[in-house]
Amino acid sequence: MAAQKGPTVRLSRRDVEAGRIPLQARLKAWWDGYDIRLPRTGKAGKTKARHEITAPEQKLPWDDPRISLVQAVWGDGFDRPGSEEFVLELINPVGLDPSMSVAILDAGLGGAARSICRAFDVWVTGFEGDAKLAEVGNKLSNMAGLAKKAPIHQTDPSEPDLKKRGYDCVFGHESFFLVPEKALMLETIEKGMKPGGQLLFTDYVLADSRATSPALQEMKENEPKPLKLWSVFDYHQAMSDLELDIRISEDITERIAAMITRAWGEFMNKPDARKNLGASPELLLEEAELWTRRLRALQEGALKVYRFHALKKSSGTLLSNW
């Protein structure tokens, strides 16, 4: 009897030559219970180390399948690339101390807010547009004993409910690209910063105002919300119009792309992850496809991730260089 052939998965020549298997194909194979391998091309490939992840052992009363899924992929309290270590590295240039207050926009499940609060003993207020994420994020802060020092509130992303001149630092973590009224958002942020306050954020941006690619177009057409992407120049112009002094403008695309690839790879290397999550194959594929589209847009170069750091005037003059 002839050996039974497994399912056929077609890969693009570019993926084969680059020695990579797209996330979507790998996830579908993992879900269906079969292995997927690249054909031999005569080129030596790199072997990736296997990693373990910890999925929730039981579903918490306030949880839902998607929130369980994103935390299993990105880590406890996170719904996007990054980690506690990464967040603390990003915010380190601010020079936080216990006398300072921080506002975090699009705080998600509050992982960044709680990490910053614990590390620097500062008062942190998280603002999140999604009602469910805000509710769960606030409950997680309560469970961590940080109900007062790191609460998560629901707010309009375009006009976050910031206290005027209330914050020494405003922080955002790859989420402003989903806000349609960015100019209005930045004006609101500037009003919420104390004199001498600092704005630090990372975001998806266009490589230039005319940047385009097939992957970027596919991403735009399939995002949960309509996208109005800005270029680095657009952000520089808007911050300059608000008289913010831009100190850092850094391309961190490769690092974020590596985080996406690594997080999903580690998730799929955990055999029992899907059983513990209770997520449907449709939900799992939907989430994986979202990040696959974003990753492809980054790999094709039309989309970038940048880190920005800007200062507000202090008593009518800008702070001196460090």
From TrEMBL:
Q: Which InterPro entries match?
A: Erg6_SMT_methyltransf, SAM-dependent_MTases_sf
SUPFAM superfamilies noted in UniProt: S-adenosyl-L-methionine-dependent methyltransferases (SSF53335)
Transmembrane domains' residue ranges: none
Q: Which CDD domains match?
A: AdoMet_MTases
Q: What is this protein called?
A: Methyltransferase domain-containing protein
Q: Which organism is it from?
A: Ferruginivarius sediminum
